[in-house]
Specification:
Domain EamA: 13-145, 154-281
Strand content: under 5%
Keywords: Membrane, Transmembrane, Transmembrane helix
Transmembrane segments: 12-28, 34-57, 78-98, 104-122, 154-171, 183-201, 213-232, 239-259, 265-282
Order of helices and strands: HHHHHHHHHHHHH
InterPro entries: EamA_dom, EmrE-like
Structural class: mainly alpha
Distance between the termini: 32 Å
Number of strands: 0
Number of helices: 13
Pfam families: EamA
Length: 301
């Protein structure tokens, strides 16, 4: 296409795809919160994973099913798939109890965990400025947790899920030679298995709307992944990274519109600290080196 031969047009398309992918992830989160009100988390996660294969099926057929078995560092693949499954369950457990914006505020700390874990697990250098930003970001998380007040199990779900999210990104970087189809397929299989185990004894027969909603969850999440992956191939990662924070704005909007939730001042203050720290980390990464595409969170769930 002549349009895409122009580098500026490629960057513009990349920006639009990133914004669209983040919107779809936020929509997916709102749909999931609505479903777990009447259905068990395991059931939603299980059927959602089946829905994802409506998108993955043609991709697997195009790549060839045998390619799924030719994996680099299979134990890391297994660990990443299980972490992704646990993170998905923790996220839906958190949104059952907490407003979307509250949960998403914890997940906005993902880039901060990635910066810290990159140094500890990958040996990547992190200067004192970024360490200072990491510490400030952790302070923002503590503000949201309110450890001296009414710490809740739901907050722990959100915190643990966001840490697992950071670890998934790190493992994705370590497995950067693996195709997107293979990574997402094994991740979905892991989620399918964990959802199936949690579903035992907690099955409720869904109506037609609930069946459609759960299957649509998988389709929307897969499409969002694909849009963001393509965006990172069209535009510089450092340019796209700050746009990930639009998910917090969508979480506030969807939470208010569909559930009547309004984040409290403590969550807003903590989220502001986390976002500012994350933006500074992205800025420093851009200053000191070229940011690899894998440094960018590829969305929740």
């Amino acid at each position: 296409m002549t349009f895409l031969r122009n580098p500026r047009n490629q960057v513009l398309l990349g920006i639009l795809l990133m914004l669209g992918g983040d919107f779809m992830f936020s929509l997916n989160d709102a749909m999931g919160k609505w479903l777990v009100v009447t259905l068990s988390v395991g059931q939603v996660v299980f059927v959602r994973s089946i829905g994802a294969f409506l998108v993955l099926g043609p991709m697997i057929a195009h790549q060839g099913p045998r390619a799924l078995l030719v994996m680099d560092r299979p134990w890391l693949q297994f660990t990443r798939a299980m972490l992704a499954a646990v993170e998905t369950v923790l996220f839906y457990a958190a949104v059952y109890y907490l407003p979307l914006a509250d949960v998403m505020s914890f997940y906005m700390a993902g880039p901060i965990y990635v910066a810290a874990l990159s140094h500890l697990l990958l040996g990547e250098p992190v200067g004192w400025r970024r360490w200072a930003a990491i510490l400030v970001g952790f302070c923002g998380v503590l503000v949201m947790l309110q450890p001296t007040g009414s710490f809740s199990l739901a907050s722990f779900y959100a915190l643990a899920g966001s840490v697992a999210f950071g670890l998934i990104i790190i493992l994705g970087r370590m497995l950067r030679g693996t195709s997107d189809t293979t990574l997402v397929t094994w991740q979905t299989i892991g989620t399918l298995i964990v959802g199936g185990l949690l579903m035992i004894g907690n099955w409720k027969t869904p109506d037609a709307v609930e069946w459609s909603g759960m299957l649509l969850l998988g389709v929307v999440a897969c499409l969002a992944h694909l849009m963001i992956v393509r965006a990172l191939k069209l535009a510089p990662a450092a340019l796209l990274a700050p746009m990930h924070y639009t998910m917090l704005l969508w979480a506030v909007a969807f939470g208010w519109a569909f559930f009547g939730d309004v984040p409290g001042p403590r969550i807003l203050a903590g989220a502001a600290i986390v976002v500012l720290a994350g933006l500074f980390i992205f800025h420093r990464q851009k200053v000191v080196a070229t940011v690899a595409p894998e440094d960018i969170p590829k969305g929740v769930n």
